[in-house]
Design goal:
heterodimer, A: alpha/beta, Rossmann fold, 4-stranded antiparallel beta sheet, 10 strands, 26% strand, B: alpha/beta, D-Maltodextrin-Binding Protein, domain 2, 2 domains, 4-stranded mixed beta sheet, 15 helices, elongated, ATP binding (chain A), ATP hydrolysis activity (chain A), AAA+_ATPase (chain A)
Chain lengths: 241, 366
């Protein structure tokens, strides 16, 4: 039986009378990587904020594992990486990780073990005791991702996780994401990089506040009769106009 | 538990920011030292007075005042020119049995000193004249002079409830300044710190973990409370030992008041940072929030203000802290006297804290 990890039902949201999301329906089953793609301003970040309970939709509901959001306790099962790096610059990489591990409620032993692990995944082991203010943009992005991976998360929500990360490491990160998926974790990724969209199990195309397509990359390519997800995106955008 | 971790992190961040640290601990010390210099030196005003047609005896009486020096002129015109040329601070012209005094009035304290000196000199002269007339009367009546006039002039012995003869304006404002520095720096730096959390996105990220909103607010309170205690210690020890200011009451109470005031400042800073979009906008609250508090903190005596204006002071936390600190430092107030200011400050604190916890709802709905 397929368990629904994230369920968005008839969600609408507007800011200052401007409709950002219109009757969004999206069911994400457990153990899948979902790519949420769409032009900037399409409402990707708003969807993420509603899933996390930072915003409340004007109408409709969001459920995580059949529990209604917003729900503070459920946040312990969600790893979140925002578009901005959101790091404490005066602290070292390790101190940043330790702090968020504490906030996630990890005990001491788990925290030390997980910090070791996530630092290896994002290739920051050697720089962990340097202050973040001395990090490059890419290193900050990686540390930010490492923070999101901390904890016993059932769900990962990553807003543009690989911006400013070089190709070799990007590949490594994606293989880690796939490994996590194989362990049964659910991962929601927004991205601008269309070849990354090919690596997902399912692509949700968000245009003008509506989900206009939601299927596996292969099926989408068949429907739109194109060779790549990028072309799907372009064609869909053209049809909207 | 999370509260403690947040407090730990805030302190760690602050300790690594050397400049902010210096601002919190060295700036108050430097400013207090400068104020001591400015207010202690030259507390006496020396005035130069031009006199025209004034009797020799009055001139002598005026000259007796060591802060007054007399320049005699024959004509009023010359005296007025001297006044215009800023050679003298006042010109006294005597004619038709009246004194006509013109003051430059650039410095009000000099004007007052001149007025006082003139009055004293006139009083001195009239008593001298009375004495002479009395002597004349006595000699015509044949009474021995020393029988009536022998009683010697009484001496004045001064003693002070607070401080000594050198106590001046600086000593009066020191207790209030102690409170002010704690308020100002905690307000500014904590406001900036939370603003930084908002703009850098760490606040959103923090709220994406299962942390409670209250844990964030309490974490900040704990860390800045500790910082405020240290800051108060530095300020108090410096004023007591280096600036020789006498603290009559308990230093512990001074720290207690400053601690509570720091928490109010912190809660206020966090609340104000909600309305600021950038550091510059945070700075804009200084003239709106901080400066008015100085006026009503007691540095300018409140009982000289109009009643309607005085009411404003009741809504400003610094007034209560200033009252309590002045009481402790200058008259040795005990706990019974400072309990009301503390309760009022705690009232401010509770209201502001609740507003802050609710205010964080803007970033997460639960």
């Amino acid at each position: 039986m397929v368990i629904t990890a994230i369920s968005i039902n008839d969600v609408s949201k507007s800011f200052d009378k401007q409709l950002v999301l219109k009757d969004i329906n999206l069911q994400i089953s457990e153990g899948k990587i979902i790519g949420l793609i769409g032009p900037s301003g399409a409402g990707k970040s708003t969807i993420i904020k509603i899933i996390l309970g930072m915003e409340v939709p004007d109408s409709g509901t969001t459920m995580i594992f059949n529990q209604k959001m917003p729900n503070r306790k459920l946040l312990g099962q969600i790893g979140y990486m925002a578009q901005t790096d959101a790091l404490y610059e005066q602290l070292t990489g390790r101190e940043n990780l330790k702090f968020y591990a504490d906030m996630k409620g990890l005990n001491k032993r788990d925290a030390i073990e997980q910090i070791k692990h996530v630092a290896r995944v994002v290739d920051l082991v050697a720089d962990l005791d340097k202050r973040v203010s001395g990090y490059s943009g890419g290193m900050k992005r990686r540390l930010s991702l490492a923070i999101a991976l901390l904890g016993f998360n059932q769900i990962l929500i990553l807003d543009e996780p690989t911006v400013g990360v070089d190709p070799a490491l990007r590949k490594q990160i994606w293989s880690e994401l796939q490994k996590l998926r194989n362990e049964g974790k659910t991962i929601l990724v927004t991205t601008h990089v269309m070849d990354e969209a090919e690596l997902t199990d399912e692509v949700a195309l968000l245009l003008g506040g509506k989900i206009i397509a939601d299927d596996t990359p292969i099926k989408l390519k068949q429907i739109y009769q194109v060779e790549s997800v990028e072309e799907v995106f372009l064609k869909a955008e053209a049809q909207q106009r | 538990m999370r509260t403690l971790m947040i407090a730990q992190r805030v302190i760690k961040e602050l300790l690594r920011d050397k400049r902010t640290l210096a601002l919190m601990f060295l700036a108050p010390v430097l400013i207090l030292f400068l104020m001591k210099l400015v207010f202690s030196v030259n507390s006496q005003t020396d005035v130069n007075v031009a006199t025209v047609n004034v009797s020799t005896s009055l001139n002598e009486s005026l000259n007796k005042d060591s802060h007054v020096s007399i320049i005699k002129y024959n004509q009023n015109k010359q005296a007025l020119r001297a006044l215009e040329d800023k050679k003298v601070d006042a010109a006294i012209n005597y004619h038709d049995n009246n004194f006509y005094v013109k003051y430059s009035n650039v410095d009000a304290s000099k004007t007052n000193a001149t007025k006082l000196a003139l009055n004293n000199a006139l009083l001195l002269n009239s008593t001298k004249r009375m004495k002479q007339q009395l002597q004349k009367l006595q000699s015509t009546l044949g009474i021995p002079v020393n029988k009536v006039m022998s009683s010697s002039k009484p001496k004045i012995y001064n003693s002070y409830v607070y401080g000594n003869s050198k106590t001046n304006f600086f000593d009066k404002i020191v207790p209030i300044l102690m409170g002010f520095f704690v308020f100002f720096f905690v307000f500014l730096i904590s406001g900036m710190a939370l603003l930084n959390e908002r703009t850098s996105g760490t606040l959103s990220r923090l709220l994406a973990t299962p942390v409670k909103r209250s844990e964030i607010v309490f974490g900040y309170m704990l860390s800045y409370g500790v910082i405020a205690i240290l800051q108060t210690l530095v300020i108090v020890l410096f004023t007591v030992w280096a600036l020789n200011v006498e603290v009559v009451g308990s230093i512990f109470y001074v720290i207690l008041i400053n601690f509570v005031l720091a928490l109010v400042a912190l809660a206020f800073g966090i609340l104000m940072s909600t309305f600021a979009k950038s550091e510059f906008q945070m700075m804009q609250f200084i003239p709106l929030v901080v400066i008015p508090q100085i006026f009503f903190s007691g540095i300018i005596p409140l009982d000289t203000m109009a009643k309607g204006v005085r009411v404003i002071s009741y809504i400003l936390p610094l007034k209560y802290a200033g009252d309590a600190l002045t009481g402790i430092v200058m008259s040795g107030d005990g706990f019974e006297q400072i309990v009301i200011p503390i309760v009022v400050l705690l009232g401010f604190l509770i209201i502001l804290t609740v507003l802050n916890i609710l205010g964080l709802k803007k970033y997460r709905k639960v």
